[in-house]
Specification:
Layout (H helix, E strand, L loop, with lengths): L23 E2 L6 H16 L1 H21 L3 H18 L1 H11 L6 H17 L5 H28 L7 H9 L6 H20 L2 H7 L4 H14 L1 H20 L5 H19 E2 L14
Antiparallel strand pairs: 1-2
Helix pairs in contact: 1-12, 2-3, 2-12, 3-6, 4-12, 6-8, 9-10, 10-11, 11-12
């Protein structure tokens, strides 16, 4: 009778400590982000309910923020723009769904559950690599919180009148006479957003897909931006524009926009990074 408590097969050995193995980065055309969006749109509707539920939950969270904050738009202005900092973390399951479609596997609720349970196995088998995704998520959350606090302080201290509503923001920040407050707000936001985008644009899918640490993932992500500055600038603009469009429709558009961008981000990672030389994060076949 077979022993049901036999240990699972071992994973491939990790590279020696002190070595930093980075995957190759590909150069893509300027309009490549449009192709990623097309592939993401296809995946969105092939996955159906699991993808749209992600968007619905995030839209409901945004509505909850609006309801709780009430007339504190001085805080919400940074919260909604800072949302983009943590978006790569929230899209993790969407990457898993697109990966399943790419492999010809079912992309459903079980795919999400199996991805996370298999990943949990690495908590015990991959010498601490389990925590890479968690650490990176915490770092992005801290960065987003930092921007929320910076934005709130800037608006509260420099706006000529209190900012309680979106209309107040337009009057006293965007159209503030002489003080250039809106330009300063945008500049600070861009200075914080640019390194965050460069650090995370392909890092989170790579962390999910391969056994790498945070430093490897971040350096690879920066390399994709430095190798493809034009395409990545367009990709950042598309992410920002589509997210703002979703917010402008009373958050309803986010139900579709956010999972769409999540699926497209997986295809961006696959187009930009050749991770075939790195070990997969999932354990060997037979581990559940």
């Amino acid at each position: 009778m077979p022993n049901s408590t036999a240990p699972p097969p071992p994973l491939p050995p990790r590279p020696p400590r002190g070595t930093l193995q980075l995957p190759a980065v590909r150069q893509v055309g300027l309009t490549a982000p449009l192709h990623w969006l097309a592939l993401g749109w296809r995946d969105l509707w092939r996955c159906g309910a699991p993808s749209l539920l992600h968007g619905l939950l995030l839209a409901l969270f945004g509505a909850l923020l609006l309801w709780v904050a009430g007339e504190c738009f001085w805080l919400l202005a940074g919260a909604f723009s800072g949302f983009l900092a943590v978006a790569p973390v929230l899209a993790t399951s969407l990457y898993a769904l697109s990966r399943a479609l790419e492999r010809g596997e079912p992309a459903d609720w079980r795919t999400i559950g199996k991805t996370w349970t298999r990943w949990q196995y690495s908590r015990f088998a991959v010498h601490g690599g389990y925590w890479s995704l968690v650490r990176f998520g915490v770092l992005l959350s801290l960065a987003g919180t930092g921007w929320v606090l910076t934005s709130a302080a800037l608006i509260t201290l420099l706006a000529p009148q209190p900012v309680h509503t979106p209309l107040d923001f337009v009057r006293h920040v965007v159209l503030a006479p002489g003080g250039h407050l809106f330009e300063l707000w945008l500049t600070l936001g861009a200075l914080m957003a640019a390194p965050l985008f460069a650090s995370s644009v392909s890092a989170m899918p790579l962390l999910l897909d391969r056994r790498v640490d945070v430093l490897q993932a971040v350096l690879t992500s920066w390399q994709t931006v430095l190798t493809n500055p034009g395409a990545m600038a367009l990709w950042a603009a598309l992410i920002m524009g589509l997210t703002l469009l979703g917010m402008a429709t009373a958050l309803l558009g986010l139900i579709v926009v956010l999972p769409w961008l999540g699926h497209a981000s997986w295809h961006a990672y696959r187009a930009l990074v050749d991770a075939s030389t790195l070990p997969e994060r999932q354990p060997p076949e037979g581990v559940r």
